[in-house]
Specification:
five-stranded mixed beta sheet; 5 strands; 9 helices; alpha+beta
């Protein structure tokens, strides 16, 4: 599987020296502070903050988005109980994840989460087709982009540099080892856990 390298600038992840393994975990007792590039849903004054680090290339992230997030949103975000913050991360194939985020940013903040959801929902079909570029282009067109606009989005070096900078800071600051990784008022939860795990963590955080 590959993207057209003539149109997508390399992520530069390997050159950065960033590794995703053997990073120590840290315990936190409070909500995470804001970070550059945060995208959020829900009541900004909610007692509980849930931060998710996810990669658009990660099959576990796609499963959580497709199977768990709808109930999570209905139960916690839409009711004002949780402020949900999404933070971008990169896993292999790095270019696919980066391209998806560049696409979502190009479509714009108002529809950012719609693009993320579309990529996750179509991830398996795109992987099976082995046409990563074509799959993302189809999503871009569904959000009103022309092929020229889509290509320009993926050639935006400044936007790509910003994605890489966010990923490197996340690895150093929050010790992200796997995706998805969540923080419920700072308490780490790794992996695509079921809704019951989040319900218990959110209830605990709300009391604290």
């Amino acid at each position: 599987m590959s993207l057209d390298r003539r149109a997508l600038i390399g992520t530069g992840l390997a050159a950065s020296g960033l590794t995703l393994a053997a990073l120590p975990t840290v315990a936190r007792a409070a909500a995470l502070p804001p970070a550059d590039g945060d995208m959020a849903l829900g009541n900004p004054k909610a007692k509980v903050q849930v931060v998710e680090y996810a990669s658009l290339a990660c099959t576990h992230c796609a499963h959580w988005n497709n199977e768990v997030f709808p109930a999570f949103k209905t139960q916690f975000i839409d009711t004002g109980k949780v402020r949900y913050v999404f933070r971008e991360f990169l896993t292999q194939p790095f270019q696919f994840a980066a391209a998806g985020y560049l696409l979502a940013r190009r479509v714009g903040p108002a529809r950012y989460f719609e693009v993320i959801d579309a990529v996750f929902k179509q991830q398996d079909a795109i992987y099976q087709s082995e046409d990563l570029w074509g799959g993302l282009l189809k999503i871009g067109k569904s959000f009103g982009l022309t092929e020229a606009q889509f290509t320009a989005a993926l050639q935006d070096k400044a936007a790509l540099d910003a994605v890489n900078a966010r990923v490197e800071k996340a690895a150093a600051r929050d010790k992200i080892e796997v995706t998805p990784t969540f923080f419920v008022n700072g308490e780490r939860i790794e992996g695509g856990q079921p809704i019951e795990t989040f319900a218990a963590a959110i209830a605990k955080a709300a009391k604290g």
